[in-house]
Amino acid sequence: MPFHTRLLGKDRLALYSFIHSLNTNFGTSIFEPVALALSSSNYVTAESQQTVGIQISTDAQRVIQNIIDRLATAKTSDIYPNKPDETDAIRSVCTQGEMRPVRLTKADIKLVAHDGTIFFIDLKTAKPNAGEFKGFKRTLLEWVAATLATNPTANVQTLIAIPYNPYEPADYNRWTMRGMLDIDNELKVANEFWDFLGGNGSYQDLFYF
């Protein structure tokens, strides 16, 4: 990295590389195992790196694209993401049309609750930028479609989880996500995520013991 070295110096570059490596590996080396251990007593099953499904109907793909296009081109606050409505729209066509094979992103964490609800969670350890949320949204909707393709009556919830708040002690800056993600139903940050897995107070116990 000759340009970085000239700009930062070897010592600063080495420190940057080390910290970047830590941030990258925290997801699989620390956050996933801790999440599984924490949720194992509150859910029927807790698994990591799970394949969500292998096919999606062409009609479901069309509905997903329509949702993405509508949100991406929205010019007023009257158009906003609504995950329950989006799930219902996908469910209504989940087996219609041609069933096409797909290779979807694996879910970092899969949970099955005692009431049968299936949760697929995508862990994000860095601060995502606004341009990435369209891809995140598509992944969440495709997971719904792939699950319903094999079980149309399933109660499936798909989430983006950010294990820590990089802005702490300030609140997490959610405005960049608001136009694409349903903040109440598709995003859990810091204490919301860990308390969701292990119950109230889990975040406090983990990070402030």
The biggest beta sheet reads: 5 strands, mixed
Extended strand count: 7
The rounded Rg comes to: 19 Å
- Order of helices and strands, N to C? HHEEHHEEEHEHEHH
Query: What kind of oligomer do you see?
Result: single chain
Describe what is shown at a glance.
The chain is α/β, with parallel strands linked by helices.
Folded structure, characterized:
With 209 residues, the protein is of the alpha/beta class. The protein has one domain (27-207). The protein is 46% helix and 16% strand. It has helices at 2-8, 10-39, 58-72, 83-91, 133-150, 183-186, 191-198, 202-207; strands at residues 45-50, 55-57, 99-101, 107-112, 118-123, 156-162, 187-189. The protein has a five-stranded mixed β-sheet with strand order 1-4-5-6-7. A two-stranded antiparallel sheet has the order 2-3. Helix 2 (10-39) packs parallel to helix 7 (191-198) and helix 4 crosses helix 5. The mean pLDDT is 89.
Name its key features.
single chain; 209 residues; alpha/beta; five-stranded mixed beta sheet; two-stranded antiparallel ribbon; 8 helices; 46% helix; 16% strand; globular
Describe the secondary structure blueprint for this structure.
Layout: H1 2-8, H2 10-39, E1 45-50, E2 55-57, H3 58-72, H4 83-91, E3 99-101, E4 107-112, E5 118-123, H5 133-150, E6 156-162, H6 183-186, E7 187-189, H7 191-198, H8 202-207
Parallel strand pairs: 5-6, 6-7
Antiparallel strand pairs: 1-4, 2-3, 4-5
Helix pairs in contact: 1-2, 2-7, 3-4, 3-5, 4-5
